[in-house]
Amino acid sequence: MESKLRYYFGSMVFLSGLILSISAIGFAIMVHLRRTSDPSEIITTYGLLGVGLSFILLGINLMISQRRPYGVHSNWVMIIGFLSSIFGVIYFAIIFSDKWVYPYVTYVSFAYAAGICLLSGNAFGNAVLKLIEERSRQLLEEDPLSAYTEEDIEREVEKTLNESFSKTNFSSFSMGIKDEVSDFVPGKALREVAQAKIEVKDSIREVEYLQSTMSGKVKVNDYGIDLTSKMLSATMKQSEETKKQNFTDMIKNKVESIRR
Amino acid sequence: MAKGLDVGTMNIICAEKGKGDSIAFAQQRNAFLEMEAGDLAQNMLDSAKILYTQKGDTISVLGEDAFKFSNVFNKAIRRPMHQGIISPDEKESIPMIKLIIERVLGAPQKEGEIAYISVPAAPVDSKVNVLYHSKTVEALSKRLGYDTQLIDEGLAVVFSELGDFNFTGIGISVGAGMTNITVAYLATPIVSFSIARGGDWIDEQVSSATGVAIERITSIKETDFSFSSDYEIGSVQGAIALYYDALITYIIGNLKKKLSEVAPPDAEFPIAIAGGSSRAKGFMEMFESRISEANLPINISKVKKNKYTLSDSKDPIYSIARGCLIAAMTREDAEAVEEEIEESTAKTQKKAAAV
């Protein structure tokens, strides 16, 4: 509620400042403001503009003001800045007509500049703090369960369990698969009689099929392919030798023809 | 020697390569019965070669014999698994599963022997998490010295039954606790899910509808029920048929829903059905008829009968263990090929270095 009220006042002050500044500009245009203009026109224009700018910055400060602990310091800076700038404007209005000389000009400039600097600096600082806090708040408020799907959690658990089985990572004890000391006494049949088995005729050709389906390769024991490969290899060797022989004969013939 | 292990709610089955062209299956019921210990009882069990363990004053009869004794003594058997996973109410019976697994799987012939174990996929209609079950079963067989890998039950059915179709199709395992479904394309699962309904669900529903004990329903369902027969309204068999139909419709409904969430490739998808609860006579025909009415978003080429319905054992419950064995042997072969390549590369490098 409090923050809503501050935001309401802040936006109201901001808008007032904006209206004042625009009015100042409008007034300056209307009266054709120049250096030699009537002092009352100059005071009205710059007074409105100065107060307008102060209001704009005060509005921004109110809108993005901080809560405690920074809030207390920030509020003081805001109040001092605003008062300083308003003091500058008022002092300007008082002295402009007949005392617009050194050192009074310096007092006005210093007071107004200090006020504007404090207000704008405070606004910037608050904005930066707000950005940082917003991000950390988001991270804190984020539901850790909704960040992971059920599959992610299951995968994580599975990974941890798999790691637990490898002796290098965890001891089996820590994951509860320690061999328990059983006080069961096995019966005679359990100790001495071998497990009965049913044998069924089955060549399990699926192993080969599955192997080739998964790898995309087919293993064959084909005598025809082996024989053809051997014959092709022998023919290629023979052809290579013939080529070499032809090449040697050609060189020999050339050498002989040169000799002749 | 690679092995495949099917850890089911009702049966634990291990498949391994037998002598010559054969597969050897070792099977035990995943159940036990607690009895009071005594010298007489122990002597009787020993002479009858019945599997049991003793802890203090309690004897636990394991496996198939537990069912026989349950009928004799009119005592309820305890089942370590419920709805396809280790029962949260029976966590103290994990040592019993361990014993049964050790019994059927046996010791590995060498350290790091490959074993593929079937596990259920995540259910679509239950909040049950299968991870704890999967990892517990994996840990139990790892303790024996196996290099253990997990495989979806549905995919194991695809591996076992759809080799002739390039491992493209839909594998459905209708078990006691769960129904597992995998849609695979070239041995790669596209959709894999399970339904927390199976044979036990039928038994429970029929029992509550007719007031007959669950054990009796199970017995009637397994021995005295066929889809092709006509039953009177109000009979147990009639109720079984009704709930079987409801289960099939439910499976197909969920399959349709899941398929609408993915974009399956434009190929023909045969369906292979396995699992103990698909043993009822006429189940395949019933399923085929329901699937043809369902208008699924994929092209179903046929409903394939289980491989073993044509062989001597005539039991589709071995399909999953067989699929696991196929996966294990394939990996074993692939590893052997890799080793060969590595060896030949090392030799070539040695030769090159010598030159």
UniProtKB/TrEMBL annotation, chain A:
Q: Which residues cross the membrane?
A: 7-31, 43-64, 76-97, 109-129
Any single Pfam family the record assigns to this protein:
CdpA_N
State the InterPro entries in the record. Answer: CdpA_N, MFS_trans_sf
Query: What are the protein's UniProt keywords?
Result: Membrane, Transmembrane, Transmembrane helix
**Entry superkingdom:** Archaea
Where is the Cell division protein A N-terminal domain positioned along the sequence?
3-125
Transmembrane as a keyword of this entry, yes or no, is yes
**Keyword Magnesium on entry:** no
Quote the protein name from its UniProt record.
Cell division protein A N-terminal domain-containing protein
Which organism was this protein described from? Methanolobus vulcani
Automatic annotation (TrEMBL), chain B:
Which Pfam families does UniProt cross-reference here?
Volactin
- Entries under SUPFAM superfamilies matching the protein: Actin-like ATPase domain (SSF53067)
Please report the name of this protein according to its UniProt entry.
Cell division protein FtsA
Tell me what organism the protein belongs to: Methanolobus vulcani
